[in-house]
Task: structure prediction
Amino acid sequence: MNPEVVKQWEALTGHLIYEGFGQSEGPVLIANFGWDEIRPGSCGKPSPITNVRILSADNTESEDGEEGSICVPAVKPVGLFVGYYGDEEATDDALGGDYYNLRDMAWRDSDGYINFIGRSDDMIKSSGYRIGPFEVESALIEHPAVVECAITAAPDPVRGQVVKATIVLANGYAPSDELAAELQNHVKRVTAPYKYPRIIEFVTELPKTLGGKIKRAEIRSQVAAEKTPKEN
Result:
């Protein structure tokens, strides 16, 4: 959950959000369970029964601060799925090795808190840099003009990919080149200059699933049809 959401909720209600992380395939794997400090921007610590690991591409433990995949050992905890119905190939791909790899990228801090980066297929590779959408989205929604946004990759002939931001504006704000530049500079200050969205599209709403998740694949598929993106 974007840290700004947690902060605003506490400011408006006086209550903290106890965030959790999981999949349809299993139970809550990582969460703020109540016995640790809540850190906005982190989804908490691994559940005591799941033995979650953050692993690099060669299945070795990622160091603190290093990006890796969220994985669960093949000795499955209670609640983790045993397979995909009618699809032995998908089941073997997911559970046939030593670990079930969720294909979600994250990093662990020195205190054991897990920080979500994004789905592996949502990662943006631009000029040799790997950019996670979650951090850029979190930076953008700190700006008062942004209600919500989605960060996706857009193809670029020089950089391979560039960061694209699809943004829903707050009441009282209107799309403009000046606002786009202001938002780009805001991301540069909050994160790093190479992470800013070179393409910004203002929309009235984002495509979402029934569960409220942003359909990033749908946004990516629309990139080729866009005729007038704004790039700076």
